[in-house]
Write a structure and sequence with these properties.
By secondary structure, this protein is an alpha+beta fold. It folds into two domains: about 1-90; about 110-340, BirA Bifunctional Protein, domain 2 (2-Layer Sandwich), CATH 3.30.930. It contains eleven helices and ten strands. The protein has helices spanning about 1-20, 20-30, 40-45, 55-90, 110-125, 135-140, 180-185, 230-245, 295-300, 320-325, 340; strands at about 125-130, 135, 160, 170, 190-200, 215-225, 250-255, 260-270, 285-295, 310-315. The strands form two sheets. It has a seven-stranded mixed sheet with strand order 1-5-6-10-9-8-7. Helix 2 (about 20-30) runs antiparallel to helix 4 and helix 5 packs across helix 10. It binds adenosine-5'-[phenylalaninyl-phosphate] (FA5). Adenosine-5'-[phenylalaninyl-phosphate] binds next to strand 6, strand 8, strand 9, strand 10 and helix 10.
């Protein structure tokens, strides 16, 4: 039995020497040190030994078990240490490397421009207000002095909202001017000074300067003795604050059913410095807004007596304003979702 034991010990130690991984070490343990295995097998034969032989063999079995357990523990410690060292080497972190900057979100250029417009007009005493994007035909056209079937309604190709038969005609607003009526009806007969930013929708031919969906900022001031001079002064001050003291704008006579007289305001094209380019249709000027003195019928529809009150109104396009400010060559970039464009702002 002792010879058998020594044989097992020798073989176990020889196998142990060849082991290089923790996994094979665990397999070795379950072969030699588990409850079933060659040593346990030998121990089971103790019952057949004489009373004198039994303690000697028992001691020898224990000694072999202890020697194998000792060898196992030593190798296990060594292998785990080696494995940890390998892992540390592999996952080594260079704490001196510069960090990667996390990509930060930004405000959309239209939002930035809207906020700038709101800041300028707030400083001029205007309150910022909002009105609905979906309007009745009456608010979008009728109350703004567009007579039914007047050709002026064709000026703006309109998206109509499908409604149940018998309902009033509903449209996606084609401009922010219906907000004038909402604001007047809210404040009349008190004087009012508001701007109304928001999205507008038109069935437009999409080009470098025109989109189907775009923003406008409506402006309205109603009070006693408000004149065209107030309108011109306000818009010139806006242009100076937006573009700097060298900003050049011009007023052109125009027509809107809801203002009389009406003007369109152009800013000198910053892209070509007035020389003429694709963006300004080779005119050197880019139209940024429509404006005028509020028509007496519209004042009346808003709840003011046109004998006593007068007012000015304007509607500007923040994308057009941003195009001029930043030298953007095409309005289609704004809603393209292209990060190469958006990340520049
Ligand atoms: C109007 O919409 C009038 N409601 C403006 C107004 C308000 C006049 C108050 C008088 C009193 P117009 O269609 O010209 O007018 O548009 C005004 C501005 O909106 C334009 O100068 C332009 O800056 C912007 N705009 C108009 N259509 C588009 C479009 N398709 N894409 C981008 N911007 C546009």
């Amino acid at each position: 039995m002792i010879e058998q034991l020594e044989q097992v010990e020798k073989q176990a130690l020889a196998e142990l020497e060849a082991i290089t991984t923790v996994e094979s070490l665990r397999t070795w343990r379950s072969t030699y040190l588990a409850k079933v295995g060659p040593i346990a097998e030998i121990s089971r034969g103790m019952g057949k030994l004489s009373a004198e032989e039994r303690p000697r063999v028992g001691q020898r079995i224990n000694a072999v078990k202890q020697s194998l357990q000792g060898a196992y523990d030593a190798l296990e410690q060594k292998l785990i240490a080696e494995q940890r060292a390998r892992e540390l080497e592999h996952d080594r972190v260079d704490v001196t490397l510069p960090g990667r900057p996390a990509p930060a979100g930004r405000l959309h250029p239209t939002t930035q421009t809207l906020r700038e417009i709101e800041r300028i007009f707030s400083n001029l005493g205007f309150t910022v207000w909002e009105s609905p994007e979906v309007e009745t035909d009456e608010y979008n056209f009728g109350l703004l002095n567009f007579p039914p079937d007047h050709p002026a309604r064709d000026m703006q190709d309109t998206f109509f909202v499908k409604m149940p038969p018998g309902s009033p005609k509903v449209v996606m607003r084609t401009h922010t001017s219906p907000g004038q009526i909402h604001a007047m009806r809210k404040f009349a007969p008190e004087p009012v000074r508001v701007i109304l930013p928001g999205k507008c929708y038109r069935m437009e031919q999409v080009t470098a300067r025109s989109e189907m969906m775009f923003y406008q900022v409506e402006g309205l001031a109603v009070g006693e003795n408000i004149t065209m001079g107030d309108l011109k002064g306000t818009l010139q001050e806006f242009a100076t604050q937006m573009y700097g003291p060298e900003a050049t704008i011009r007023f052109r006579p125009s027509y809107f059913p809801f203002t009389e007289p009406s003007v369109e305001v152009d800013a000198r094209c910053f892209l070509c410095s007035g020389k003429g380019c694709r963006m300004c249709k080779y005119s050197g000027w880019l139209e940024i807004l429509g404006a005028g003195m509020v028509h007496p019928n519209v004042l009346r529809n808003g709840g003011y007596d046109p004998e006593r009150f007068s007012g000015f109104a304007f509607g500007m396009g923040p994308e057009r304003i941003a195009i001029l400010k930043y030298g953007i060559d095409d309005i289609r970039w704004f809603w393209s979702g292209d990060l190469r464009f958006l990340e520049q702002f």
